[in-house]
Specification:
The structure is a homodimer.
Chain A lengths: L8 H24 L6 H8 L13 H25 L3 H15 L1 H8 L10 H19 L10 H13 L11 H22 L10 H14 L3
Helix pairs in contact in A: 1-2, 3-4, 3-5, 3-6, 4-5, 6-8, 7-8, 8-9
Chain A binds a DNA duplex through helix 1 and helix 2.
DNA sequence: TGTACATCAGTGAACGCGCGTTCACTGATGTAC
DNA sequence: TGTACATCAGTGAACGCGCGTTCACTGATGTAC
């Protein structure tokens, strides 16, 4: 009936093989980084010939795009699940950290060094927005709090956010909430990405404590 | 006299060509990312044959390591210069941002996605520590402030820092200063890296304002 | 100042490699009557 | 239930490519007497 009927045995088989390909791709990325990803190497590990993979992905770039999609989708699901558990912002933050530590290269595929000139397709951008929205909603659920931070810079930012409230379609948020969301996101990413890149190991500091302290700081902002 | 006398014409010539090679390498990285760096492509652009570059770099990895070294060294010098200008932490932070925006891929070569299994040679680690020290000293120059942040997480972090004060050899710092340095570093990196990766463009927010607000927040901590 | 020798930058040919990708094909799986 | 046909997964050979890297060499630059 539909052009892609997922219930015919052939389609189920296709989906299985596709999943196995991406599984091997993730393994390869985890051990050698995304730039080392090779279709032939994956095929060899699966006991297939190289060209066979072209039944499942049109090109190497296609496979990488699918991995990026899986990355975003996986994080979005993880956060949605945490939000559903009712653990609040704190639960979301720890789910984020756990997800990142589970596979650092996967995190970097989503939030790491960009490839100049690469533009993610629209459906991936949409999932990215979904992630932001989940975090933003959790911020909105906190007791309303006026403004995080004083001074001219915070003022200017608040004025700016007042004008750009509309970017989350259907989720109008007061500038204070937007601000809180932004500093939550950037601060957690700051600690997390430096931790995953190993920049703390040299100085023997436990990033988990710093992460927790930053999270507490955002939660306690004039609450 | 010395094994490498930089004053003989031949040595000066060598240094020039080496510099020209790295210049072209940076161009290539800026436009296509570090993983696309190719010795042959660089040679072609310089109007030389490929093997000629082996007079100057033992291998491709050697060249990349040199670029990483230049990255760290350049940032260290930039921050030292800013510190010398007496502009304080605020000046350092803006020098950091300007340096990053000047060449995003260069910033990512230093603080971006790590290559699994790669370990920087000791001299690069030393320059990294130099950068941290410059920032730390600027934090120490601020009025002493007790502790940034309350709550159990901040307490735990402070206790942890109390034990790990020694990591900056010769620069003993009270836990409050260390804490301030850490949040300065991670928060600025958080905003900066997401900005450079283009994660703000989709939502039309000006990262410069957020960066300035975060900087102000760190400066104003119980000061 | 001039000649003899050593150093070394750069060339061009060649190596092996693994890559992405195409193509014509075989054989198994599913569909229609 | 059985036969005829269509679909499609996977193979193996082949393509061209650009890569890093080696090697024996030429010719220019510098050094020693």
């Amino acid at each position: 009936m539909a052009t892609t009927d997922a219930n015919t045995p052939r389609e189920r088989y296709r989906a299985q093989v596709r999943a196995e390909i991406t599984r091997h791709a993730w393994e390869q990325i985890a051990t050698a980084g995304a730039s080392a990803l090779s279709l032939n190497a994956i095929a060899k590990r699966m006991g297939m010939s190289g060209p066979a993979l072209y039944r499942y992905f049109a090109s190497r770039d296609d496979l990488i795009t699918e991995l990026v999609r899986e990355g975003y989708r996986g994080l979005a699901d993880t956060l949605d699940r945490a939000a559903g558990d009712g653990a609040g912002l704190s639960g979301l933050a720890h789910a984020l950290r756990d997800w990142a530590l589970e596979d650092p290269q996967r995190y970097f595929l989503v939030y790491g060094t960009p490839v100049p000139g690469y533009h993610a397709p629209a459906d991936i951008t949409a999932v990215s927005a979904e992630i932001m929205t989940t975090l933003l909603d959790a911020c909105a659920a906190l007791p309303e709090d006026g403004t995080p931070g004083d001074g001219p810079a915070a003022e200017a930012l608040r004025a700016h956010l007042e004008e750009h409230r509309e970017w989350t379609a259907g989720h109008p948020a007061p500038p204070g909430t937007l601000h809180r969301f932004l500093i939550l996101w950037t601060r957690l990413h700051g600690v997390l990405s430096l931790e995953l890149a190993g920049h703390f190991t040299g100085m023997g500091i436990d990033p988990a404590l710093l992460y927790a302290a930053e999270l507490d700081g955002v939660l306690a902002l004039r609450a």
